[in-house]
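dumping this here so i dont lose it
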């Protein structure tokens, strides 16, 4: 008996990794708007330090891993119910990519917030 390769699931997983890789520096590269100008050397120095702090929040953190695991389980169940083992495989891969992608998007927002909070803590009047 010949096994079928699930190309759609593999392609989805590949796209998920590419998208996560593309997000690797976002969020931490955020340049907040400050009241009173941002052209000072102190602003640039503080922004560099705050970006390093935000980089510590990895995109492959426990929240992303848990969301991928949950997405895998739910996707496999739904796919399995509709199309047997092949559907379970495809559903699991797509569910993992969707769950991880959604949580990684939240991580980007968290990294932006880390930069804002850090800059406020260093005395900058961050307005956006």
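and the seq i came up w/
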């Amino acid at each position: 008996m010949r096994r079928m390769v699930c190309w759609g699931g593999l392609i989805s997983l590949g796209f998920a990794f590419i998208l996560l890789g593309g997000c690797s520096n976002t969020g931490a590269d955020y340049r907040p708007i400050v009241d009173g100008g941002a052209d000072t050397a102190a602003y640039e120095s503080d922004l560099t330090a705050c970006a390093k702090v935000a980089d510590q929040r990895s995109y492959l953190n426990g929240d992303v891993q848990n969301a991928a695991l949950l997405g895998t389980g739910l996707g496999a169940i739904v796919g399995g119910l509709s199309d047997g083992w092949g559907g379970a495989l495809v559903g699991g891969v797509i569910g993992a990519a969707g769950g991880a992608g959604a949580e990684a998007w939240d991580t980007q927002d968290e990294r932006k917030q880390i930069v804002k909070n850090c800059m406020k803590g260093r005395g900058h009047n961050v307005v956006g």
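Confidence is low (pLDDT under 50) at residues 1-10.
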